[in-house]
Amino acid sequence: MIKAFRLTAILEGISYLLLFAFTMPLKYWANIGAPNKHVGMAHGVLFILFVVLAGLVCYQYKWSIKRFIIFFIASLLPFGTFYVDQKYLKDLQ
To answer: Which structural domain range is residue 61 located in?
Structure first.
């Protein structure tokens, strides 16, 4: 399950950065909304999957609620999921 969580963390981070750096400028500066809709939907699904997997992994490894909260807050910040991957998940594989 840790592999799936790591992959989701990376994909969620990439989708977040794509959303802010690429598709939102297209939507608001060039009036091209389709990429924002698709990347936004993918990001939403990946965000929910990340939070669910964070809960499951914290339960499986018997980590504290504090660590789950760190994971959740990291999912709200740009580059946060990359931090989670490097600090908490990289050595588990």
So the answer is: 2-92
